[in-house]
Amino acid sequence: MTPKLVLVAHGTRNPRGVEMIAALADAVSTRIGTTRVAFVDVLGPSPAEVLRDTPESAVVVPAFLASGYHVHTDVPREIADSAHASVAVTRALGPDPVLAEVMLDRLRDAGWRTGDSIVLAAAGSSDPRALAEHVRAAAMLADVARVPVRIGYVATAVPTVSEAVSALREEGHARIFVASYLLARGLFHNRLADAGADGVGEPLGVHPAIVDLVVARYFEGVRSLNSESFSTATEEWSPVRRR
């Protein structure tokens, strides 16, 4: 049987965030068949619960923009708890050049013009591996936007988005835009409106390129299930793979 895709997200109490993940799963389903959704925090079902209810082989795609605690710890633990016989875990969605292109689209829609300054707004993490991946994401955005990109954090890490915007103002930058390195609208994205920028890009959302990226990750996992060994590009972490 064709492996099932399990899209694993963080979880949120904001209905718009839940709706976005559901819409993304629906869009992916039109390409590769039924896509299940699981959450590692706040609400259910958990990945372990979904996998226990999935008799086929499964490909778990972490819908995260960096590989922090949830990707390195929660997802492997949930898969182990499920005792599923055949699971592959792919790389997280980010960082990826595709996401940089989507952020640039969102910025242009918000009024950004070539040469305007950019602050990449990330959720933040206490995991240094995730923070390093935010740096990579900013570099990817800088490559496509052709301007330097600062990083600001909504929570957990520093500088904050507001601090990053203020620093650019003090340096004399006239127009500053915030690129939302977030998947969906919610509390974190809403805070960006108060950062003092000239405009804020929409979250990544259900952009056609994001759908393509999830589908690509899924097929990476399918290939891994058919191979003798599986590893990811995420440093210092090998995902659970059972056969």
TrEMBL record:
Source organism (scientific name): Rhodococcoides yunnanense
Pfam families xrefs: CbiX (PF01903)
Protein name: Sirohydrochlorin chelatase
Matches recorded under InterPro entries: CbiX-like (IPR002762), Sirohydro_Cobaltochel/CbiX (IPR050963)
Alphabetic keyword roster: Lyase, Metal-binding
